[in-house]
Structures are given as C-alpha cells and as structure tokens.
C-alpha cells in the first residue's frame, strides 16, 4: 500500500509499504477514504524527530470502510463506514470506565510515562502505524470505531476522529455555557471549531489570530475576531467590563511565536542525534509559552484557562504567582474522543450544520501529494487552514 512516512525533520514522503494485517482478535482493518493533516502532525514534522524513526507511518485523523475484523470484534463488520479515533483505548480498564480513555491503562506507553497509545504518533505514544495510508490496522475496534451513515460526505464525519471532540472538550473544560464570555487564542482547525462550539453553546466568543485568512473564516461564523497584537488583550477587556473573559482557550500550544529562546531550543533539540536529544526533551525541554502566558494574563480573576494546544516541554516556566493570585482554574489533557462523540454526531448530521464543519477544509489533495500538504500547512501558504488527503484518487500526472 501507499503511506505517508516520516523521513526526517521537515521531510515526509509517500512510500510503498507492506499492507497491515490482523494481529489481535480485537483488531479491524480499514480501507481509508479520507485522512487529514493535524496541527499535531506538524510537531512530528518540526520538533519531535528524536522520538521518530525514518519510515514511521504518520497520521491520526482517518475514516474509511471496514475490510476485515478479528475473531472477537462484534460492533462492526466488513463494509461498515467508520471514523477512527486517534486514541487507542480498550474501553474496559479503570481509566476508560472513568471517562478518561486517553489515559487507558491497557495501552499506556509506560516506557515514556505517557498515556494511551496514539495512531501514528512517535515512540512517545507507542509508535503505532498511522492513518495517512491506504489501509490501517485499528486495535480495540469494538470500543474505538464509530460507525456512521453512508449518505453524507466524508467531511461531515472525518473531524470526529480528533479535532472536533478536541475542540468540544476544550470548551467543556472552559466551563461554557456557565461562563458566558470566551476568548480563543489561535484560529487553526481546533480553534475554529472551539470558537463555533462556544458560540453554539451560548457564549460571546472572541477569536485571536495573526493570520488574516483564519480571522476571515471565523468571522463568517459570527466570531468577534482580533489580530494577535498588543492591543488585543486590552480590546477584549474593554468588551468584558474591564475584567477579561470568563474563560480562555489556548488552541496554539507549542507552535506559539514570541519566545525566540524556546523556539531555538526546540529547533536545536530536534536536530541533535536522537540519543542526545531524547533526554534533553524529556527532562529539560522548554516550550514557547507566549500563547499560554497571554491566556493567563487575559482571563478574568477566578476564570478558567483551557489548553487545547499541545505542549511538550518538561521544564517550561509557569507564572505561578500570577496564577495563584488570580485564583485561576487550569484544565488540559489529551482528548477523550469517545466520551464526546455521541453528543457530536447529531450536530454534524444536522442539515443546518450548526458547528460549520462544512466550512473548514481549504485544501484536498491526493495521498501522494502529502508532502505538498505538509509544506502548505506549516507555512500557512495559499490560505491553508485544513488539509485532507484522499487515498482513493491519483495524483495529477507530472508535466513534462
């Protein structure tokens, strides 16, 4: 089969690799029909090279058709159309039963002190082959796979694999609808959806991003948008009686600009030999924290900061004095996908599209053009906000 493989920092390629097979009786094999590039994939592309191996199959936002199931799989059968969550969870352990499948005790990557294994996401999370491929093996298929209807296009359902439940969890952790004003920092795919969800649940939502195309997309959905400039914090405060919003979602994470030294440290660590870089990142990694510090500054006293953006630093400095003085709540964590999908499925199937999932994809490319998609997404060129790869269509022939 053809699959997107990691080959080095800022280098992915589409290669022919062996087809996956059933390895456990709880597995299923999926023929992938759509698979997206996530902002978290850029962390592998740019920063987390020390935890990758050349040839690793990446990607964790797939959906498709069940081709084969293991002997113990009961909830799906060949021919079913399914969405595949990015977390690999058993559904039976103590963590899964408590609504924390992202901490699944059956698939925890104890070697690295990590939570549940993830599709296509480095040694830190199990080095499981990912979903930017023509076919995918899905462990614990009975719990993970989400059967969906056959009438609506893939884009209706695809984002249930990751970014839509991630955005929903971020808004729930932010305390909406109890909190009636919400700022979302970063209007990439997760930030776009978080802003729309917050508005859907009744909040007044401010969206902050330096990229004009992202602000324009959010504005189409009624979000009050601001550029990422010094005046943004003050302007939002003016609209919230001088206090700041009740809650702030940081949808940026370690991609945040504004911390040159941390950015340099990330870059250097990402290019060191793996044996040196891994302990540096595991024990002394420092993130770019501009977005998180802005969230802490902006939120009202007694408010909530919800982290949807991924951070990877082990020694990132936090303004604990300010956080304590402002009596803040801080919520975060890998998304517990299957906890939220039952609530989200009727919303994505609603003909009114209340969350605007039909207005997110800006680029659709054949699987073989994944390197182009990664470059566009990383550089935010050509108005790129969300890239979907289609393994079912061929690339255009090269021009001689």
UniProtKB/TrEMBL annotation:
Domain Alcohol dehydrogenase-like C-terminal, by residue range, is 189-255
Q: Which UniProt keywords apply?
A: Metal-binding, Oxidoreductase, Zinc
Q: Which Pfam family, any one, appears in the UniProt record?
A: ADH_N
Q: Which domain of life is it from?
A: Bacteria
Q: Name one GO molecular function term.
A: zinc ion binding
Mind telling me which InterPro entries this protein's record contains?
ADH-like_C (IPR013149), ADH-like_N (IPR013154), ADH_Zn_CS (IPR002328), GroES-like_sf (IPR011032), NAD(P)-bd_dom_sf (IPR036291)
Does this UniProt record's set of keywords contain Oxidoreductase? Answer: yes
Record PROSITE patterns: ADH_ZINC
For this chain, the family text in UniProt reads: Belongs to the zinc-containing alcohol dehydrogenase family.
Return the CDD domains for the record.
FDH_like_1
Can you say what this protein is called? Theronine dehydrogenase-like Zn-dependent dehydrogenase
**Which cofactors are reported in the record for this sequence?**
Zn(2+)
Source organism per entry reads Brachybacterium faecium (strain ATCC 43885 / DSM 4810 / JCM 11609 / LMG 19847 / NBRC 14762 / NCIMB 9860 / 6-10)
Signal sequence, start to end: none
Q: Indicate the segments forming the Alcohol dehydrogenase-like N-terminal domain, all copies.
A: 25-141
């Amino acid at each position: 089969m053809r699959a997107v493989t990691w080959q080095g920092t800022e280098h992915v390629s589409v290669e022919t690799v062996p087809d996956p097979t059933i390895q456990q009786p709880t597995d299923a094999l999926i023929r992938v029909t759509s698979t997206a590039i996530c902002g978290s994939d850029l962390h592998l592309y740019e920063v987390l090279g020390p935890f990758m191996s050349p040839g690793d199959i990446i990607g964790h936002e797939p959906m498709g058709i069940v081709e084969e199931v293991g002997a113990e799989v009961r909830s799906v059968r060949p021919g079913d159309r399914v969405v595949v969550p990015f977390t690999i969870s058993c559904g039976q352990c103590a963590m899964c039963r408590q609504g924390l499948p992202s901490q699944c005790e059956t698939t925890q990557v104890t070697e690295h002190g990590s939570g549940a294994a993830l599709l296509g996401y480095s040694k830190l999370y199990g080095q499981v082959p990912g979903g930017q491929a023509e076919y995918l093996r899905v462990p614990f298929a009975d719990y993970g796979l989400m059967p969906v209807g056959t009438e609506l296009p893939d884009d209706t359902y695809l984002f249930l694999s990751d970014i839509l439940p991630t955005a929903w969890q971020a808004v729930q952790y932010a305390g909406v609808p109890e909190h009636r004003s919400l700022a979302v920092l970063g209007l990439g795919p997760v930030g776009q959806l978080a802003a729309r969800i917050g508005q859907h649940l009744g909040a007044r939502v401010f969206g902050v991003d330096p990229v004009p195309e992202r602000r324009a997309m959010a504005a189409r959905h009624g979000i009050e948008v601001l550029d990422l400039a010094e005046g943004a914090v003050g302007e939002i405060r003016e609209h919230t009686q001088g206090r700041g919003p009740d809650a702030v979602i940081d949808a940026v994470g370690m991609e945040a600009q504004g911390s040159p030294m941390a950015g340099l440290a990330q870059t250097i660590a990402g290019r060191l030999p793996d044996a040196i870089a891994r302990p540096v990142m595991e024990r002394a990694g420092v993130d770019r924290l501009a977005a998180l510090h802005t969230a802490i500054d902006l939120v009202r006293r007694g408010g909530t900061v919800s982290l949807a953006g991924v951070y990877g630093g082990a020694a990132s400095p936090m303004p604990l004095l300010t956080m304590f003085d402002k009596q803040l709540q801080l919520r975060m964590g890998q998304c517990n996908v299957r906890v939220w999908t039952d609530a989200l499925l009727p919303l994505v199937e609603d003909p009114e599209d209340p969350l605007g999932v039909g207005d997110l994809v800006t680029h659709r490319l054949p699987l073989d053009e994944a390197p182009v998609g990664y470059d566009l997404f990383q550089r935010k060129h050509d108005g790129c906000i969300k890239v979907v790869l289609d393994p079912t269509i061929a690339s255009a022939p090269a021009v001689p």
